[in-house]
Amino acid sequence: MSDLPFKAVIPAAGLGTRFLPATKAMPKEMLPVVDKPAIQYVVEEAASAGIQDVLIIIGRNKNNIANHFDSVPELEEKLREKGDGKKLAAVEHSSDLAEVHMVRQGEPKGLGHAVLRAKSHVGTHPFAVLLGDDLIDERDPLLTKMLDEHRRTGAAIVALMEVDPEQIHLYGCAVAEPTDDPDVVTVGGLVEKPSKEDAPSNLAIIGRYVLAPTVFDVLEHTQPGKGGEIQLTDALEELAKDPNGPGVRGVIFRGRRYDTGDKVDYIKAIVQLASDREDIGAELKPWLKEFAATL
C-alpha cells in the first residue's frame, strides 16, 4: 500500500443528452443545484475528505468547468468595491477548494476509458473516482470511510447502497459477503443491471470508487463491454476474481444521496437540498406544503 496522498478523478466528459436543450452549450455538470453547479458539490466532497489534487476529465464544450474553478479578478474586485463580502467569499471558495486540473477524454468510450485518461496525472498515487450524477450529502460523509478502508486493506473500494429489489435492474449489483464491519462487505463479483430474480443482492453500486494505480494495468487490456464501451465494472470484476490481489470491498452507504441523473431526480435533489438550507428553507417549506395540497 502506498503512503502517497490520494488524488481525485471526476469524469465529466458526457454529452448530457437527457437535459437537452439546456446542455447544448452548457455542460450538465454545470447545471445549478440550488445556487452551486453540481460539480462543485463533488469537488467539495473530495476536499472535505482531505484530497487537494483533483483531476476533471472533460470533453468538448466543457471549458465552463475550468472557468468555474479559476479565479475571476474582475468580478472579485467589483464585489470588494461594493462591500459584498458574502458573495465574494462564495466566489473565492470555488477557486480555493483544491488544485483542480483538466484533461480531455476525446471520444467518450466509457467510464473505464475516462479513468484510464487519468493515468499520467495520477501516477503512483491511490485515487478516488467521483461521479457527478450522485451527490452525497455533506452531513453524511462516505468518502472518508472508503479512503480509510483502502488504506487498511489495499483493496479496490466501491460504494454500495441498499435499494428496493424492484429497482436493482437499474444498477450494477454486488456479489457480497459480510465482514466483521457491518458497513463493509467483500465483493466477489459485479453484475450489471440484473433482473430482480437474478440479482445476487440488493446492494447497488453508486458513483464512488477508491482505487490503486494498478487498476490502470487492468483497464489497458479491458475489452469494450456493454454499449461497446470500456467499463470500469469489468476491470473491478477482474480485480475481484484475482486470487493473488487485495480484492474488492464495498462500503455500504446509509446516508442521504441525491441523484441528478435525470430530470425528475434532479428537481427532487434541488427541492431536498433547498428545504434544508437555513437561508431559504424556512420560506420554501410552507410554500411546498401549500403547493402539495393543491395536487
TrEMBL record:
GO BP: UDP-alpha-D-glucose metabolic process
Root EC class: transferase
InterPro entries per record: GalU_uridylyltTrfase_bac/arc, NTP_transferase_dom, Nucleotide-diphossugar_trans
Residue intervals of the Nucleotidyl transferase domain: 7-274
Species annotation: Microbacterium schleiferi
Signal peptide: none
Keyword Secreted: no
UniProt-listed PANTHER family: UTP--GLUCOSE-1-PHOSPHATE URIDYLYLTRANSFERASE
Reactions accelerated catalytically: alpha-D-glucose 1-phosphate + UTP + H(+) = UDP-alpha-D-glucose + diphosphate
Keyword Glycosyltransferase: no
Protein name: UTP--glucose-1-phosphate uridylyltransferase
Sorted UniProt keywords: Nucleotidyltransferase, Transferase
Record gene name: galU
Assigned protein family: Belongs to the UDPGP type 2 family.
EC number: 2.7.7.9
GO molecular function term, any single one: UTP:glucose-1-phosphate uridylyltransferase activity
